[in-house]
Every structure is written in structure tokens, then in C-alpha cells.
Amino acid sequence: TLNENYARSIAYYNDTILNNTILEKQLVGDFDQALKEKQFCMYLQPQMTSEGKMLGAEALVRWQHPKRGLIFPGDFIEVFEKTGLIYRLDRFIWELAVQKLARWQQEGHSDLYISVNISTKDFYYMNVYETITALVEKYRIIPSTLKLEITETAIMTGTAGELDMIEQFREYGFQVEIDDFGSGYSSFNTLKDMDVDVLKIDMGFLRTSKPENLEKSMSILNMIISLSKTLGLSVVTEGVETKEQVVKLTQMGCRIYQGYYFSKPIPVEEFEKRYM
Ligand code: C2E
Ligand code: MG
Ligand code: MG
Ligand code: MG
User: Is the ipTM of this complex over 0.90?
Assistant: First the structure.
């Protein structure tokens, strides 16, 4: 009956919440040791031209958990943001990225860049500017080879001086990227109110729920790409999975791609073997 179904779905719902809460608590409890034992690692996903030339990469964290195996950011970033642990994880990943850039630059690959993700919450728990510039000075890398990815939501809801800090980042020589552009509710306000270097277009435009909306999506992509040209920004399209997508977007004027069509995020050693 309806009531039984209802009761069952509530029970299922409670169960799921409970399981999630337990899992979250365990992950939070595991954090200190994980950081100490370097269970978090940096994967790299290449950013490519349509011709397949590798320009740089995005650093994406993975958790090599001793009991649970490889865990993806979707399962822990939010929990760490809620609990204020995220800044320690991000600082760790940024350091891995800067170390890698230093090594590449010593080996003569000074043209390659790495993009790192900055969480909104990082701005609450530390001075992001000081943390990142300290790393750059410690490892003596070329600042323009480190790109900083910030989501538009972080920028528009920011109260911790994020906008000023973005200006400071750019003055120091970092490139600033808006991540997941178009997924928030204030994308165009973001562009009006701040200066950035790169727009990373949200994958959502390539994944319409109804096939008949794909055409609309493509028009929006076209508009975003030409707008970025007008504003002097470079564009990265994220989430390209097929050759057709790359061909279409290249016709629209996009030059840089990140997506499974070229490669999934892979361990650093594999990245170096494959691309360098
Ligand atoms: P993001 O920064 O937008 O990163 C892109 C995500 O899209 C990555 O997921 C990547 O694996 C995935 N992706 C790239 N190309 C394709 C494609 O062609 N198809 C599909 N289906 N997916 C594709 P990932 O690594 O699971 O990361 C998810 C999100 O977690 C990231 O989204 C970012 O917001 C966050 N994240 C990852 N690493 C870090 C980190 O070190 N610090 C912080 N604060 N957040 C991170
Ligand atoms: Mg990103
Ligand atoms: Mg993104
Ligand atoms: Mg994202």
C-alpha cells in the first residue's frame, strides 16, 4: 500500500543519511593520519590543443585510502569543506603542484603549467595569497606557470576579500581561471565585476538531459566562446569526450580542451611518460 511504501522509503532515506553520516565521520576521523602518511595524491589531467599538443594540466586530488582503496574528490571534498579541513588538504596539493613545476622548470619544461583548485572555504581558514606566494618563493617557480582555479560561486558569494585577492594574484603574475563557468547563477555578473585570465566552461553544456536541447546548448557555448574573445579571455572547454565535440568547438573558436577524449586524470608518473 501507499503507506507501506512511504514508510519503506523513509526508512531507506534514513538509512542512507545514516550511512553517509557514518562514512563522513570516518573520513574526517581518518584525515590527520592520511595527510601525515601522504595518502592524498595529485593526479594530472592534460589540457590540449585540438591538434593534441599538451599545454599543461589540472591537478586533481585522489585519496589512496588504506582500507577503502582509491577515493575520488566527490566523496570527500564537501565533507572537508564543511568541517574546515579543506585548507590543509589544498595546501598539501598546491605544494605537490609547485614542487612538480619546480622540477619541470629545472628540466627545461618552463612552458608547461599546472592549474590548482581553490575552494571557497580556503579563504576563511587561511590567507590564500600568502600561502601560495610562500610556496612559489620556497621552490622558486615562474608564477605564470601556476594557474588558480576559482569557481564563480566562490567569487560572487565571497565575503573574505576574494575579489581583492584575485587582483593581487594577477599582479603577482599568476593566471586566474573561473572554474565551472556557466554553472552558477551569476556568471555574467562575475565577468563584469572582476578581471580574470581564463574561463573554464562547465561540462554541463555538453551533457544535456534531453537530446533536443543539445542545439540550444551549442548556441550558448558559441556565445560564451565569442564573448570571451571580446573580453580578451582564453577559454578551456572541460569534459570533451568525443571528436565531434572538439571539431564543433574548434569551429566556434575554442583552442584548449580538457576531457576524457584526450585523457582522464592520471598519476603524475604516467602523465610524464605519456606527454613529456
Ligand atoms: P573540477 O575542478 O571542475 O574538475 C574537473 C572534473 O571533471 C574532474 O573530476 C575531472 O576528472 C572531471 N572530468 C574531466 N574531463 C571529463 C570528461 O570528459 N567527462 C567526465 N565525465 N568528467 C570529466 P574530479 O577529479 O572527480 O574532481 C571533481 C571536483 O572536485 C573538481 O571539479 C573540483 O571542484 C574538486 N577538486 C578536485 N581536486 C581538488 C583539490 O585538490 N582541491 C579542491 N578544493 N577541490 C578539488
Ligand atoms: Mg577545477
Ligand atoms: Mg571545472
Ligand atoms: Mg567542479
Answer: yes
